[in-house]
Amino acid sequence: MRARTPPCAVLRGRRSFPRRAVTSPVADARGAGPPNATASHSRPRRRYQLEDESAHLDEMPLMMSEEGFENDESDYHKLPRARIMRRKRGLEWFVCGGWKFLCTSCCDWLINICQRKRELKARTVWLGYPEKCEEKHPRNSIKNQKYNVFTFIPGVLYEQFKFFLNLYFLVVSCSQFVPALKIGYLYTYWAPLGFVLAVTIMREATDEFRRFQRDKEVNSQLYSKLTVRGKMQVKSSDIQVGDLIIVEKNQRIPSDMVFLRTSEKAGSCFIRTDQLDGETDWKLRVAVSCTQRLPALGDLFSINAYVYAQKPQLDIHSFEGTFTREDSDPPIHESLSIENTLWASTVVASGTVIGVVIYTGKETRSVMNTSNPKNKVGLLDLELNQLTKALFLALVALSVVMVTLQGFSGPWYRSLFRFLLLFSYIIPISLRVNLDMGKAAYGWMIMKDENIPGTVVRTSTIPEELGRLVYLLTDKTGTLTRNEMVFKRLHLGTVSYGTDTMDEIQNHLVNSYSQTQSQASGNNASSAPPRKAQSSAPKVRKSVSSRVHEAVKAVALCHNVTPVYEARGAAGETEFAEADQDFSDDNRTYQASSPDECGNMAREGLRTLVVAKRALTEEQYQDFENRYNQAKLSIHDRTLKVAAVVESLEREMELLCLTGVEDQLQADVRPTLEMLRNAGIKIWMLTGDKLETATCIAKSSHLVSRTQDTHVFRPVTSRGEAHLELNAFRRKHDCALVISGDSLEVCLKYYEHEFVELACQCPAVVCCRCAPTQKAHIVKLLQQHTGRRTCAIGDGGNDVSMIQAADCGIGIEGKEGRQASLAADFSVPQFKHIGRLLMVHGRSSYKRSAALSQFVMHRGLIISTMQAVFSSVFYFASVPLYQGFLMVGYATVYTMFPVFSLVLDQDVKPEMAMLYPELYKDLTKGRSLSCKTFLVWVLISIYQGGVLMSGALVLFESEFVHVVAISFTALVLTELLMVALTVRTWHWLMAVAELLSLGCYVASLAFLNKYFDVAFITTVTFVWKVSAVTAVSCLPLYVLKSLKRKLSPPSYSKLSS
């Protein structure tokens, strides 16, 4: 009889043995036997039944009402019809946005015609001979720039003038070049517009130049290329498909390659993939055995070999290919999988590697999973853009009324255009300037906040978005957690060891090994190792010491932990010098890749791993190895075939132990998530980890409360299965949803609208096994289906697409590098800072911008109302009321500082906003800048403009210049008083701005003798008339505001009191 070989010995001898054979999930460790006959016959029948049913699914939409829940759950033919939204057709569809859809479709069609995308195909790559490639492949250059030399100015101008506000300013400014339409000085129109454009162009040019420098640095990195004549240096951008590239330790891999050789004697190496998949653990990669066995590097050119690679794909976790050597007899065929690849943007962590390039440039996995950044526009800017359109319609209507009352006499069209220019201050050109300066001020305040040190504002155009968020999508590893695994529990079935009883495990191991050594010394006649003698002994009930010994031995041997030795010698060592290094304990570190998690998650939120073993005879192992290698050589359905072979081995296993490790959460993650939930923000966790791990972290971080039900969406692969599972999920109420990326893809393919509608009703959603592009797709779906503002938070390179797709992207600087923080709009060092960033700075930025923008529009509306009254009194003449410096001074030195000081205003103290996050819910409703508030400001402007102009006309005595003096002085005083009326919390700089502006105006009266009668403005009559007009315009508003605060106070005032 041949002795049964212990599994650990087999595992150490064969590297190709699958990882899952020892660390099996609980479902596999139960020892499931072959399926019974009934089950095997029922599966095909069920499959055909689903195929027949799927043909009718178009006629049976998902159940979206409660009335059908009494129906039989097993028969979805009887479910009631869902609500079918009628699509708008005809003229209504065209007016409500169809024209924009048609224009976009036409532009996309023209772009596709001009730039046809090359079809991606599988390829055959000959080692070291790029000239043998049958097709042209893209250059291996990285380009993150948005413009080039020719498109920079047109592109920036287009981004500015595609908004109605800026386009209107441009048309008004250009009209002043026409003599018949000229109203005032050119600088009064072109100076503000030129300032905005200059600031924008300088900012874009700076950002573009920085992107150019980063791209140039990456593309200019030198690598060693192996040729027939030896090594030569080549730039990263000059690397081609088929080149043999040598990558040193700690060097970035320039393109997607197949791993051929390494300086490590084991034929494997580790790579860091944090900038690709966001995981900080090192990944083990194995060289192609055929090329690794070659005596020297130069022998790579002495063989005739090629690599067959599948077409470029998005999936970074899979690869199918074959390596073939034709000059051997018989030809050598070796299957290639993900463990034989070196993807671009990863870093070699151990040894020196040699690989053959298979994908370059735009076809690499890292580039294909990165979406192009978009120019983000805040919701406040879009709302202001709509309001300016309404103001423009009012401007046109007012001008038409004036021309109509004039009787269309003479060249009426010229009068119409002059009236349009006279009333153009209805849309003030200073609005854009004040908003941009305010945004810059908010960014400076955020970065100077001592409570959130290290916060960086990288996009200064959308700080108000922080106060309008409804959906927050976050990564898990490194964002919510520290990414530090701590061993917490070892469970042997009847006994459990925790962190406080680890010394007992140590004692059991000492006792077990001392007994083993005594048995070995007493058995001198036997030359076989003691463990082999034990393996053939009859099975008896094992002691605790022996069970601990078996469990620790399995964990210690069957893993991906490998010691890495750091060199202490000179830097100029050869690539094969690691054998001469110091292997002492002081010079040794350990690296590992994450083990597989099982489905049984501990109540404490630990990541658990079931460890089991099975002893194989040599015949069993040879049979498994043959079937395993044959499955790995398959080109079609390789993954399924390999999984089937592995599953056949994972039966009748002996359970050894259950281990638990804790991925510790970052500081204050739980209170921060609770604060965000109380603020009405719905949190979605999108992670690339497994379903069990994601569920565990969701519960431990209190993203899902312990009392809350969790619905785990079963894996679905077809339309019928998705239909049934969605209806089952529809019956659940107030429960968190946990779904995998594959099931999500199927649901979105057939039931996109229904799934998003159901998911948005959940208090929390967890999506696991998400690819980088899938994360971005989820963000875009929420934007399209809900119309709400989204925020994405991540810390790794795999989160960049999600961050760029969201309305507001926040990057966390962690262990996974700075790629996410550099691509984000805001960067924070820890997750807990997001609470203050949203509750305090998001609130204040939105409130301040809303008040500032409406006040600037009020400032233009009031002077346009005065102009309308003036023209009406003087026979509808298109003559300006104020000319020259008066108009420039009104918009700048006389009122600019007090109006801009509104960026210091705050309705709630920061401590109160953090204590009562429920106040944030009001911000998402957009009540600070709405049609109602805008209409109130319009009525105030009409009232005050009418009072100021009418009062001046009634009180003036003899000369028209007195009308100008009284009305303009009262106008300036009214604006200063209105700023004081609008302020909710005074800041000392506000008082300084008020006094400074008043002093500037009083001082300038002495120099404005061209517009004012100096003798008149120094009299008491002038003073009392101005005071009377100002009091009539402002006093009623003060009374109304006091009554409103007393009778209907806002929610925050109740808290403040």
Automatic annotation (TrEMBL):
Residues 514-528 have a biased composition (Low complexity). Its cofactor is Mg(2+). CDD domains: P-type_ATPase_APLT_Neo1-like. It is an enzyme of class 7 (translocase). It comes from the Eukaryota. It is a multi-pass membrane protein. Its main location: Golgi. Residues 231-365 form the P-type ATPase A domain. ATP binds at D475, K476, T477, F583, R607, T687, G688, D689, R769, K775, N798, D799. The chain crosses the membrane at residues 187-206, 390-409, 415-435, 856-878, 884-904, 934-954, 960-981, 988-1008, 1014-1040. The active site is at D475. Its EC number is 7.6.2.1. The keyword Magnesium applies. Keywords: ATP-binding, Golgi apparatus, Lipid transport, Magnesium, Membrane, Metal-binding, Nucleotide-binding, Translocase, Transmembrane, Transmembrane helix, Transport. PROSITE patterns: ATPASE_E1_E2 (PS00154). Residues 822-1049 form the P-type ATPase C-terminal domain. Mg(2+) binds at D475, T477, D795, D799. Residues 1-47, 513-545 are annotated as: Disordered. GO terms for cellular component: endosome; plasma membrane; trans-Golgi network. InterPro entries: ATPase_P-typ_P_site (IPR018303), ATPase_P-typ_TM_dom_sf (IPR023298), ATPase_P-typ_transduc_dom_A_sf (IPR008250), ATPase_P-type_domA (IPR059000), HAD-like_sf (IPR036412), HAD_sf (IPR023214), P-type_ATPase_IV (IPR006539), P-type_ATPase_N (IPR032631). It catalyses: ATP + H2O + phospholipidSide 1 = ADP + phosphate + phospholipidSide 2. Belongs to the cation transport ATPase (P-type) (TC 3.A.3) family. Type IV subfamily. This is Phospholipid-transporting ATPase. It comes from Balaenoptera musculus.
